[in-house]
Amino acid sequence: MSEQEHDLATVPQLLGLARRLEPLRGYMAGALKAYQQQERLTDDALMQRLNLTPRQLARLSVCKRPDSGSSEFGKQVRQIADYASVEAGLVANLLRQVEAVDGLAHAPSADVRTSAGKTWAGTRPGLLAAARDRVEPTCEGASSSEAEGS
């Protein structure tokens, strides 16, 4: 059996293993599943979005997930990328997105009081301020372009 034939025979086995690893945070299969859910992608759409072959997806999925807080993060990402034959930037960006969205989803909520004295129950501090980044008109009847241009 040639190396290519061996790889083709192993892909379904690796994908089966990857499915069993999805619930485990310590593997890339979990990060890929989280990304897939965040982006609402089917399996085929996931491969298309990330420009992966089934072989690349299988190999990427069974890798241990690098710790983004580690000084070895970059080195680990490059090792994973080399093993799976994918771009290191793809791995790093996918992990960053998954961690960012997961961090927002699990951020503690609290009652927030605005400077105007209004209370927003169950608001995540910082998110309210981030949503208000445009200039509001100060004069009655002024359009937003007039207010921004003055």
* Straight-line N-to-C gap: 74 Å
Please indicate the count of domains: 2
Per the principal axes of the C-alpha atoms, what is the gross shape? elongated
Helix fraction bin: 55-70%
Strand order of the largest sheet: 1-2
What summary fits the major beta sheet?
2 strands, antiparallel
The mean pLDDT is 78
Range of strand content: 5-15%
Using only C-alpha atoms, the radius of gyration works out to 22 Å
Unreliable stretches, pLDDT < 50, 5 or more residues? none
Helix/sheet category: mainly alpha
Order of helices and strands: HHHHHHEEHH
How many extended strands? 2
- Helix run count: 8
Q: Which key phrases capture this entry?
A:
about 150 residues, mainly alpha, 2 domains, two-stranded antiparallel ribbon, 8 helices
